[in-house]
Amino acid sequence: MRTQVVIVGAGPSGLLLGQLLHKAGVDAVILERQSPDYVLGRIRAGVLEQVTLDVLAQAGVDQRMNKEGLVHTGFDLLFKGERHRIDLSGLTGGQKVMVYGQTEVTRDLMDARQAAGLTTIYEADDVQIHDFDSDHPSVSYSKNGKTQTISCDFIAGCDGFHGVCRASVPRKSIQEFEKVYPFGWLGVLSDTPPVHEELIYANSPRGFALCSQRSLTRSRYYLQVPLTDKVEQWSDDAFWGELRNRLDPEARENLVTGTSIEKSIAPLRSFVTEPMRFGTLFLAGDAAHIVPPTGAKGLNLAATDVKYLSDALIEACVEKSHAGIDHYSTRCLARIWRAERFSWWFTSLMHRFPDQGEIGQKFQEAELDYLIHSEAGSRTVAENYVGLPLNFGE
Ligand code: FAS
Ligand code: PHB
């Protein structure tokens, strides 16, 4: 088999890249090691920046999102038992975010790819990439006991943090930056109405909590938990009880609890790969970087990587110009480090660190107090949360 681009991974990055390339007449085959149901079963991001909305619109997959997504113009910071609203729109000249689950984005992308009759090979085992530093790259995989090889012009590594593509790059050609946080997020999805019309980020002496949502009848909650915790240790009652302990009286009063329909613990890390291009291999999304989800940046960074990469690959395949692919890594990393810094800062401000002591809690509360009483401080939070413009760094 031959195609112009082989995309490894059918998460949001791979599917979005496939859709943008298809719209421009560039052929791509996607290889995914899991089943479609498995990919859809992973509950992850929930907040989309305007730039991500624009890229999804360009891909032609924003119809259901515009109908079902929830537009948010602010969120609450909760500390010392009181909530304070960060007016995202008022502080950023009218910008907003959209609450629409990653699962739904992925579903919309899968449906669009299927409707266009494009090739996605699910449950592809033993994917290996070959000769990506030559002019004749290829990707092999096995399915139903048969090994197949696809020759191509370019390989897009959209295979996430544990994927094969980044792992295939010789160590001397790559630099990795990593910080692992001493806690995780226990997440619960429930078919209960959200506790508040906007998100609540809580700094509590007992640890961080986040009240998010997927719709007016489905909520997503997170609790900071020790890395040693196992999800089996947390009954629904224990989760709801601890969440109540970290909320303010009004939210505690309004909280509607119910049976969890998904419950999982995610580790938190900051991670960046430099560069993101190796000959004909390009990394995008979680394959190249990871952020702690506090700043709601992971999926949004993936979307802008993919927008930059699709523009560059279309230029290379259609106009035979390499200017875009030569600039890809630099262009992405300028944006990625900004989002990494904000995600690290917001995580450091909102979570309880094992070694911070009581004075550390006081420092965090004092910084939060400054942020909500200073227009400059609040604008700092708002500008970073709504995200950078697409042409940032140009
Ligand atoms: P993904 O990891 O989503 O997709 C990679 C795909 O490649 C997967 O389908 C995988 O099966 C496939 N793959 C891997 N190895 C392969 C191989 N060898 N061959 C073929 N296929 C292979 N972001 C937020 O903004 N907010 C959040 O709240 C949030 N919560 C998260 C919770 C968890 C547990 C995790 C892991 C991430 C979370 N993120 C969050 C970040 C997340 O949303 C990512 O940014 C997003 O999934 C990135 O999408 P992809 O780059 O497509 O990577
Ligand atoms: C979510 O809804 O999953 C979510 C929202 C905001 C975050 C992280 C996760 O910062």
Task: Explain what you see.
Keywords: Monooxygenase, NAD, Oxidoreductase. InterPro entries: FAD-bd, FAD/NAD-bd_sf, HB_mOase, PheA/TfdB_FAD_monoxygenase. This is 4-hydroxybenzoate 3-monooxygenase. The structure is a single chain. The chain is of the alpha+beta class. α3 (50-58) packs parallel to α9 (298-318) and α9 runs antiparallel to α10. 37% of the residues lie in helices and 27% in strands. The strands form 4 sheets. The protein has an 8-stranded mixed beta sheet with strand order 6-5-14-15-16-13-17-20, with helices on both faces. Strands 8-2-1-12-19-18 form a 6-stranded mixed beta sheet. It has a 3-stranded antiparallel beta sheet with strand order 3-7-4. The chain contains 12 helices and 20 strands. It has helices spanning 12-23, 36-41, 50-58, 63-68, 88-91, 102-115, 236-245, 249-254, 298-318, 323-350, 357-373, 375-386; strands spanning 5-8, 28-31, 47-49, 70-72, 75-79, 82-86, 97-99, 120-121, 125-130, 138-143, 146-151, 154-157, 175-190, 200-203, 209-213, 219-225, 260-274, 277-278, 281-283, 289-290. The structure holds arabino-flavin-adenine dinucleotide (FAS) and P-hydroxybenzoic acid. P-hydroxybenzoic acid is lined by residues 45-47, 199, 210, 212, 220, 293-294, 296. Residues 45-47, 199, 210, 212, 220, 293-294, 296 line the site of P-hydroxybenzoic acid.
